[in-house]
Write a structure and sequence with these properties.
The protein has 3 helices and 14 strands. With 272 residues, it is mainly β. The chain has one domain. Strands 1, 2, 4, 6, 9 and 12 form a 6-stranded antiparallel sheet that branches. Strands 3, 5, 7, 8, 10 and 11 form a 6-stranded antiparallel sheet that branches.
Amino acid sequence: MRRALQILGLAIFVAALPLPAPAGAEPFRFMRIGDNDGFGFLDTRKLLRSAFLTPEAGPGEAADVNGDGVLRPGEFLPDLNLDGVVRVFSDDDFDNRLPGELLDRAIFCEGCAKIHNASRGSNWTDLALSASAEDRDWPDENGPQTPNNPIFVFDFTVKNGDIPPGAVIFFNMVFGDYDIFPAVIQVEFAAKPARRLEIELKRGLDGLIQARTALLRFDEVFTRDENGDWRGFAGVEFFAPAEPYTAFDFVELSLFQIAQSRKVIAGLTASR
């Protein structure tokens, strides 16, 4: 698997479609890869969750627990073939990517002066990363077979004065059915040593959608550019060599920690 910084080096030689223009002058809030849309499921009314390892739910319970039309942390990826489980080789594969995601251009920033063309990774979102998926427009050059190690590259500029220097940067992620250990994230920076993050996972709930946060230092993510502005860079790779089925909704760098869902279902509290 190519390293994230190698992708950055290759990207400067590859013609790329223009990224969406950032919004006008405003304070930086986040840079997001993938859209916050509940894994691309447009109609959740008939989606049911797995009954396997979810005794509190029972068969026939809604995947969209609160019924608001979006699959959120604390809810569940759907059991699409209604066999009681969410897993590989069970017809639960899905590909809900919109054209922007397929073209790896679903990248958004609130408060950026520029999103650079090396930014990428949205083609890994709204897709069941399943070893039984069809090998069509697959983000990994090796196809759907394991390992599927998603790579997300954040490369952007924030104007001086639009972000407080020294602020803590939250790396937020929303994923589903990611429950095989080890689950390790490798993060590479432009000017600081790479480091690995281990994420705590809630196990035993089939298809559970989880939100997790890791803390990054400001000086790891940001360096001054020639104009005195802040150039942000982080290359993130997920390593889950034994995980045959998982999915990502979005990942982001943010000044704010992602909200955790406190209630999963009655009597069950999501891990913090």
